[in-house]
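Researcher: For the annotation table, I need structure tokens for TLDc domain-containing protein. Please keep the output clean. Sequence:
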Amino acid sequence: MSTYDSFIFSFTDRNNLGSAKVGYSYGDACSICFNGDKGPTFGRGRDLNIFKGIWYSDKSVSYPKLDIPAKFTADDYEVFEVIKK
């Protein structure tokens, strides 16, 4: 799905909210996707995706580069949909 409103973010220091980096989608056709076998995917260039419990961020095509590690695990994640009224 194409959108300019989608964003991903990263903290360089989890104890410091001021260390957040935010990157908004460039609006391409695969800004946000969902694969029933893999879960959420952000960006056609695999800007951020999960496979078998491991997160990958190996290319930066649909979102600006946020210095997210190329491969990492997470205890939990959340994906929100905000509906404008």
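Researcher: And a one-line annotation?
Model: Residues 7-73 form one domain.
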